[in-house]
Amino acid sequence: MTIDELGIVLVTGVLQGSVYALVALGIVLVYRASGVFNFAQAEFGTTGLFAAFVAVEIWGWSYGWGVLFGLLAAVAMGLLTERLVIHPLRDASKVTLLVGTAGVALTAVGIQFWQNNEVPIRQMPKIVEGVAATPFGAAVTYQQLITFGVLCAVAVALAVFFRSPSGLAIQAAQQESTAAELVGISVRRVSMMTWGIAALLGGLAGVLAGPNTTFTAGFLTFGAGRALLPGLMAAVLAGMRSMPGAVIGGLVVGVVEQLGTLSALEQVHGAKALVLFVFLLAVLLLRPQGLFVRRAAT
Amino acid sequence: MTLLKIEGLVVGYDAFPVLHGIDFEVQEGEVCVLLGLNGAGKTTTVSTIAGLLRPRSGRVLFDGKDLGRKSPSARVSAGISLCPEGRRVFPRLTVRQNLRLGAWTRRRDSKTVKRQLDLAYDYFPRLAEREEQLAGTLSGGEQQMLAVGRALMSRPRLLLIDEASLGLSPTVAKTVWEVTSRIKADGTTVLMVEQNAGALPFADRALIMEKGTLVYTGVGDELRQVNLREAYLGA
């Protein structure tokens, strides 16, 4: 194992982890608002990616408008999910809600297959083609750098937003919905807003990760860009509640996963997934409340 | 002048009626206490006034206007604020953030927000000391003070306080009750719900509920007569 090898693990891991962090942020947001793991979080991304691809490659829109269209499609899907699934099931058990979100994910995958079956290989063009740098010999593309930059910007924007009056109102509604209603906050609107933001984060993950490879239906959930499970792991590391934790958790998961590519583990099949699960188990055994949260004060 | 008028209010959960048609009035500028045992329908009454529950029949009139199906938010804007049972502070927000959110309907009126904030700290100096502390780490008494302070932030004309004394020591409960006279002096009418007859000396008038009906209305002094207290409050 050389320093270079570890350097590659770190660089590649952080860049890949940026996508996980975006997905994890959405998972944490929804969990805080609706108390459920959102199976459809990654599909917000794939849906956004498909919409952007159709706009750019089939309708011939410019890249910027295409991406905007993709993000709007993701947000629309998030709002529809809140209206048609989450709100009607608000008094149902969490398991029912969980199955509801899985239903949304499968529906989205189904629509993607049905709508895009004639196009065999879909490749979303990159924002900027080419390699930006090669630290330790790892090729870092402009696309990956931009993704990392967007993650940083999103993290700062969210931190600012959650200290603003609207952000505080969201937190209040999540912590004590009756009391929020009593001070005049519309808990209904807060729920819509949260799902909209979560879907936007998913959409960003989709349009940014998509160009790295060719994509198919279910791209971010179980396809080539699978980020749902690593995103969930990152959210678990964050105790399902901490937003900074979700960002760091995503990057950590990315790096730990890349450890599986070390030459020392060459002979081990599926080393990436193995290393990741061992790491998650170890964390959960030692700190079941997550890495970045204090034990809840009651 | 009548600020709040309840007419033939019937409220129920599913098939079970909890309030069987109650009528009462609260005059502007008084502190009124609604007494009764657990399950008498006190919380149901104030929750309906605040808009959390919808009546099956009957009306709630505030300042002469029927509140109809107005949302809790609209009622806050109209001037009704409920400090709910169990305090329900926002545990992972600071004392100051909790208070500021109490003024959500007036958030664009920074002058009023500032004035109400100062007023809340004036009523409960303890809150000023703990301004930056997370509400979930406060003691029960401090959380109750915070809940009352938060309810006052919208500058209501009518403040409803549901069971402020629940789970508090007699001394702390008294601190909260005592503030009601200052709240009244500053122009807010108070209707508090209590199981604890200890609140009586702090009220201008008392209403007593039993099994979803109003059984007594009168001035607090009359209630000090032992037989009434025994009959309705078991104390």
TrEMBL record, chain A:
It is found in: Cell membrane. The keyword Transmembrane applies. The chain crosses the membrane at residues 6-30, 67-86, 95-114, 145-162, 192-209, 245-264, 270-286. It is a multi-pass membrane protein. It comes from the Bacteria. Keywords: Amino-acid transport, Cell membrane, Membrane, Transmembrane, Transmembrane helix, Transport. InterPro entries: ABC_transp_permease, BCAA_transport_permease. Signal peptide: none annotated. Belongs to the binding-protein-dependent transport system permease family. LivHM subfamily. PANTHER family: ABC TRANSPORTER PERMEASE PROTEIN (PTHR11795:SF450), BRANCHED-CHAIN AMINO ACID TRANSPORT SYSTEM PERMEASE PROTEIN LIVH (PTHR11795). This is Branched-chain amino acid ABC transporter permease. It comes from Actinokineospora xionganensis.
Automatic annotation (TrEMBL), chain B:
This is ABC transporter ATP-binding protein. Residues 4-233 form the ABC transporter domain. The keyword GTP-binding does not apply. CDD domains: ABC_TM1139_LivF_branched. Belongs to the ABC transporter superfamily. It holds the Pfam family ABC_tran. SMART domains: AAA (SM00382). It comes from Actinokineospora xionganensis. Coiled coil: none annotated. InterPro entries: AAA+_ATPase (IPR003593), ABC_transporter-like_ATP-bd (IPR003439), ABC_transporter-like_CS (IPR017871), BCAA_Transport_ATP-bd_LivF (IPR052156), P-loop_NTPase (IPR027417). The keyword ATP-binding applies. Keywords: Amino-acid transport, ATP-binding, Nucleotide-binding, Transport. One of its GO terms (molecular function) is ATP binding.
